[in-house]
């Protein structure tokens, strides 16, 4: 079983590939489409595709959860992160805010968060607290920036080494606290 979020009317598969299950419909164009907003469910063994409603309650982050978020605001000692995904859980329907303090960024000394993050960067972090705003940490090497954007031109940056990124558009080199799961190598 695989799952991912879908919207009403999204093309899910062709009628030759799968059977339309709950939360889907067959359209005259030969596609199976989502009839509700929810989570895509694909049963490869039975060849059935369906959509399950989102849970009525959002999946609140809990201590120990891994989350993905976007750096919304940044200062020398605190970053506010808009959490958009709690890993290994259904997609949430509410917006959550995480707070990353400079002391929780790395095991190494970091004087300012500007040395580790950039506005708009996508960050993978671990949740430390159970209330909003959720306290976050990126101390181990599996956590940190997973996608960054150049501060000069806004292009996606490529991993250069374990601590710096390179913009292939303008040539800028910037420091970040980079996760081992950084997307662009």
Indicate the topology.
Layout: E1 2-6, E2 11-14, E3 19-20, E4 24-26, E5 31-34, E6 38-43, E7 48-53, E8 66-74, E9 78-86, E10 96-101, E11 122-127, E12 134-137, E13 144-147, E14 157-159, E15 164-167, E16 173-175
Parallel strand pairs: 3-7, 10-12
Antiparallel strand pairs: 1-6, 2-5, 4-5, 6-7, 8-9, 8-11, 9-10, 11-12, 11-13, 14-15, 15-16
Protein architecture, described:
Helices cover 0% and strands 42% of the residues. It is mostly beta strands and 185 residues long. It has two domains: 2-53, RNA polymerase II/Efflux pump adaptor protein, barrel-sandwich hybrid domain (OB fold (Dihydrolipoamide Acetyltransferase, E2P)); 66-175, OB fold (Dihydrolipoamide Acetyltransferase, E2P) (Beta Barrel), CATH 2.40.50. It is elongated, with a radius of gyration of 20 Å. It starts with a strand and ends in a 10-residue tail after the last strand.
